[in-house]
Design brief:
alpha+beta
Length: 609
């Protein structure tokens, strides 16, 4: 299919027009057949005609262009009008301009000239695109008034994070290397980083509406119960000073990046691991201060006021937060603070009432015991594996604390000998920093100043009690109806939030953040969360079919499935080009079957070239 210039004369006047033409096979050999006269339409420079013809062909085949073009719309309208006049029915599955109707079932091919070109990776992109459609994300974006080009760009950017995460600048090259044009119908030659940046700005501000509708869709599609709410907070770091992002602040990095500014993210998941929503906070935010905002967001996103069981780690388990959860008529399930185990020591030592639990993920069973006190249920847990960990942490911290106290004592001694005694305030500050650095060990030591020198002693009774409680921890909940195993298994679902953080930061490449403007920082994180929605939907669908492979492994297994153009030189001197997906190997084929997806990533295109 191509555009052809036609010149005709009538009398002393010359008329120039442009025709849309295709090659056909006739008994007399190949001939040109006019599809329609483009009339007064100006197709532009001759070197652009082939590209224009291809875009017209794609539009006739039902693939909307990423960027509107009046010439394409005009040409498509004229073709449709001509078909209506001559009574030509439009094919349901093939574009009338692909040349397929003109290609016989059998052609004589010269095998030595067969070539394959323009190979593009398609497998992971195909799975992501199909899940995007299954979740009806395009309709969700349309409901928040995003135009078709913005919706398509948003899908490209989300699938990039899912398939091959990179910067907006590198995303342009990735789109051309991958089968983005084939699977999504995007004109990748028109993409550039500025369009991606502008789309991020347009997407900003719609996060809450999109996440709310998306989770509602997931609840319906996957029959989610929504009885548990899993909540945790993490932070991630920036590259550079990030002066245009007020939320970027220095704080306690959970990734040990003390050299960088941070931004904190609170993530809410349901009990099945699907994201309900996320909120961004200043980088120096303390975990426990975010509970009220989380409950507000929960009720805004789900419309549920009261009745949820909020599962949180011990960092959120302050008395004020637990009281707040109850006042909002929700339940809580949290881990107790380590320093609160003392009053429960007698219960831990009592041999009555214990049961063994064999978690599928652990080789060594743990011992659990349920008691009730003050309107709460407490689950006492003793884990041999955790005992080794507690002991190792305590001994390591004690060793380092004693070493640093020795170094500080030497500094104090030298200052005394030099006649420059260290002030009590300065010494107290240094001791405070030591206690902050070694929280597991400092509680067993009394550190004080005696006769101008630094001295310390061991609190023998406290240390002995700590040894007795190695491997012991407890959970507390306002749900009195839960049996011991139900309490424990509900709490360990919190590991799904930890897993989500690992996937966001690793598989989906959330970190580091290179953006400078706050709205783009927020949209970058939002796109990662959208990609995580797709990842969870893919993994949960496979798990329901008995396959527990992670997305990180799946996308590597799917990379072998590609789209390519095969050129076939025929005996009559022409060349037939066929663009379609390769035959999937065994593993990709199995993944498509389990996900109930069509193994064909695109509709085949055939044309004489």
């Amino acid at each position: 299919m191509f555009i052809k210039r036609s010149v005709s004369k009538r009398g002393d006047k010359t008329y120039v027009s442009h025709l849309l033409v295709e090659s056909v096979v006739t008994p007399a050999g190949p001939r040109h057949r006019t599809i329609c006269n483009l009339g007064k339409m100006d197709p532009g420079p001759k070197e652009d005609w082939l590209e224009l013809a291809e875009r017209i062909q794609a539009a006739l085949g039902g693939q909307d262009g990423l960027f509107p073009d009046a010439r394409v719309d005009q040409a498509v309208r004229r073709v449709r009008e001509r078909q209506a006049k001559v009574g030509v029915a439009e094919p349901e599955t093939e574009s009338p301009l692909t040349g397929e109707m003109a290609i016989p079932d059998t052609v004589a091919v010269k095998p030595s000239g067969v070539r394959t070109q323009d190979l593009r990776e398609a497998g992971p992109l195909h799975v992501g695109h199909q899940m995007w459609q299954r979740l009806q994300l395009d309709a969700i974006l349309k409901a928040v008034k995003l135009a078709a080009p913005a919706r398509l760009l948003t899908e490209v950017m989300t699938l990039n994070r899912l398939v091959h995460p990179c910067s907006e600048l590198a995303m342009v090259d990735w789109a051309k290397r991958a089968a983005v044009a084939d699977v999504l119908g995007v004109d990748t030659d028109k993409l550039n980083e500025d369009r991606f940046y502008r789309n991020m700005d347009e997407l900003h501000g719609h996060r809450v509406e999109i996440e709310t509708e998306l989770h509602a869709r997931e609840k319906s599609l996957f029959n989610l119960q929504g009885q548990l709410l899993l909540y945790d907070l993490t932070n991630t770091y920036f590259e550079g000073e990030v002066l245009q992002t007020p939320k970027a602040k220095r704080g306690h990095s959970k990734e040990n990046r003390t050299d960088c500014k941070l931004v904190a993210m609170g993530l809410m998941l349901d009990g099945d691991g699907f994201p309900i929503g996320h909120e961004l906070h200043d980088g120096n935010t303390i975990d426990g201060t975010t509970v009220k905002g989380m409950l507000d967001a929960l009720e805004q996103r789900t419309g549920v006021v009261g009745g949820a069981t909020v599962v949180m780690d011990r960092g959120f388990a302050s008395a004020d937060n637990l009281k707040l959860v109850r006042e909002r008529q929700h339940h809580y399930l949290v881990a107790g603070f380590q320093n609160q185990r003392g009053p429960l020591l007698a219960e831990f030592e009592d041999l009555e009432g214990w049961a063994e639990l064999e978690p599928s993920a652990m080789k060594v069973p743990i011992r659990i015991k349920r008691i009730e006190r003050g309107g709460e249920a407490f689950l006492l847990c003793v884990s041999p594996a955790r005992a080794e960990k507690d002991r190792a942490i305590r001994e390591r911290q004690e060793k380092r604390l004693v070493k640093d106290m020795g170094a500080l004592a030497e500094t104090v001694r030298k200052a005394e000998e030099a006649g420059h005694s260290m002030a009590d305030k300065e010494l107290g500050e240094r001791i405070g920093r030591l206690r902050e650095r070694y929280p597991r060990a400092n509680r067993y030591y009394v550190i004080e100043r005696e006769d101008g020198q630094l001295a310390w002693s061991v609190r023998t009774e406290k240390r002995a009690r700590a040894v007795e409680l190695d491997g012991a921890y407890f959970l507390r909940t306002s749900r009195l109806d839960l049996d011991p195993e139900a309490i424990w298994r509900s709490y360990i679902t919190l590991t799904r939030v930890e897993s989500a953080f690992r996937d966001l930061k690793g598989t989906l490449d959330l970190r580091p953040i290179h953006h400078r403007k706050e709205m783009r920082v927020e949209t970058h994180i939002f796109l990662c969360v959208l990609a995580y929605h797709l990842q969870v939907a893919i993994e949960r669908t496979l798990q329901a079919a008995g396959d527990h492979t992670s997305w990180e492994v799946l996308r590597e297994e799917l990379r072998t499935h590609q789209i390519a153009t095969t050129t076939l030189p025929t005996a009559d001197g022409r060349t037939l080009a066929i663009r379609r997906g390769s035959i999937p190997e065994r593993r990709p084929r199995e993944i498509y079957r389990l996900l109930d997806l069509d193994p064909e990533p695109m509709k085949p295109i055939k044309a004489w070239v």
